[in-house]
Amino acid sequence: MHAWLCENPVGVEALQWKELPTPQPRAGEVLVEIKAASLNFPDLLIVQNKYQIKPPLPFVPGSEYAGIVAALGPDVKHLKVGQNVACLSGTGGFGTHTIAPAALCLPLPDAFPHADAAAFIMTYATSHHALVDRGQVKAGETVLVLGAAGGVGTAAIQIAKALGARVIAAASSDDKCELCRSIGADATINYTREKLREAVAAATGGRGPDVVYDPVGGDLAEPALRSLAWRGRYLVIGFASGTIPSLPLNLPLLKGTSIVGVFWGSFSRHEPQAAAAVLAELAGWYGQGRIKPVIDRLMPMAELKAAYEYMGTRGVKGKVVMVN
């Protein structure tokens, strides 16, 4: 097998494409022949030693992937060799094969392409957990999605619409806004040339959104929080801007708003049965055509460094997927 090995987490430039022995699965594990793996923001942080999870060295990055079960550990009963699966295991995806925890492998129907499956769990599970569980979004409410043309943003738009919400999508360019409208956004804001708070007020008749979905952080966080309606919910997804904001806590006090943290990884570990139910519902929605990952481009696995560079341009719409 071959894989991108991180022996020194100082950045993408230190990754090396190496031939490694193909491992054999132990109890509770499967060997997956990887067909596709998506590039997520945590995949950048983890090779820079900036992510909250720091795997022992050396490790293979690539948090999310899909492929074919090539071998089973001795006690694995719910999967079979030759079965298509998707997995969000945190590492291991940027290679030709990996060992995956069997409990984290999502069996795929035959009509679920590997590229879509590799771009599915992290963004859609995060957005479902955020909007349904943590945000309690109801039909008829208004959801403001920041970074709306990215992987989690496009997933959030589709899920919010599936819940019957009105969606305002905020993105950094006109072509990204056009993409957001094409997947269901009711209104868009280009925050590079519009003041976010004023544009949100105009789009909501001065009332403000019921929910803010924020995977960006940085300078957009405070105006987004200030824009919320009475009893609004501000969902903290991540900090793609690179800056963790400091928010004035008098704002939620005065408006009865809630600041709510969202982290699928912790949720799935603490509440595995609930997490499994989320994935099952999302797979059903995909089969019904209600949701579908937005894939910016497919790139060969050997071009991972170029994919990282492209992600750094902030021009990605949806997800970049590496393929073998």
Automatic annotation (TrEMBL):
Enoyl reductase (ER) domain: residues covered: 11-322
SUPFAM superfamilies the record matches: GroES-like, NAD(P)-binding Rossmann-fold domains
UniProt-recorded Gene Ontology molecular function terms: oxidoreductase activity; zinc ion binding
SMART domains, A to Z: PKS_ER (SM00829)
Domain of life: Bacteria
Pfam families from the UniProt entry: ADH_N (PF08240), ADH_zinc_N (PF00107)
Matching PANTHER family: QUINONE OXIDOREDUCTASE-LIKE PROTEIN 2 (PTHR43677:SF4), SHORT-CHAIN DEHYDROGENASE/REDUCTASE (PTHR43677)
Record's protein name: NADPH:quinone oxidoreductase family protein
Organism: Ramlibacter lithotrophicus
